[in-house]
Amino acid sequence: MKIGRTIFLIFIIYMWNISSTQAQRLFDKVPKEIEFDHSAISSVFSYNPGTAISVKFSDEFHITGILKSNNKIYNNLQSVLIECTNYKNLKFFISKRVNQDLSISYIGRMISKDIEDGFEVVDSKPGKSVLRKIMLKEMIVE
Prior knowledge:
Elements: H1 2-24, E1 33-37, H2 39-42, E2 52-56, E3 62-74, E4 77-84, E5 91-98, E6 104-111, E7 117-125, E8 128-135, H3 136-139
Antiparallel strand pairs: 1-8, 2-3, 3-4, 4-5, 5-6, 6-7, 7-8
């Protein structure tokens, strides 16, 4: 009887670990890199906090949420924070920089304290950026 309970307990612990692992990785089904046009995100910098936002990065991946802040830090630097509603506790922080040649660069992160994966925004070529998957566990040094 004790062996049966022990096996059952091990099974429960194993299943709990599997479900925890799946819950911690939110973007397993999303490609590692998604290239998108700057037009996909350029409009969010013109909205006021409290505005509902929808950003379509590709046919397979989009976010919706509420714009929490929109700050023009310098003449050439503006940052916004979007609290996503279609991914629980996900925050999308992105900055727009106007370069000296008047081209625009974007940089940002899409992360949550409750998940171990996320995305960073990096420039790829003029007028385009890439969402690149990151593993937060690998970035944090304890």
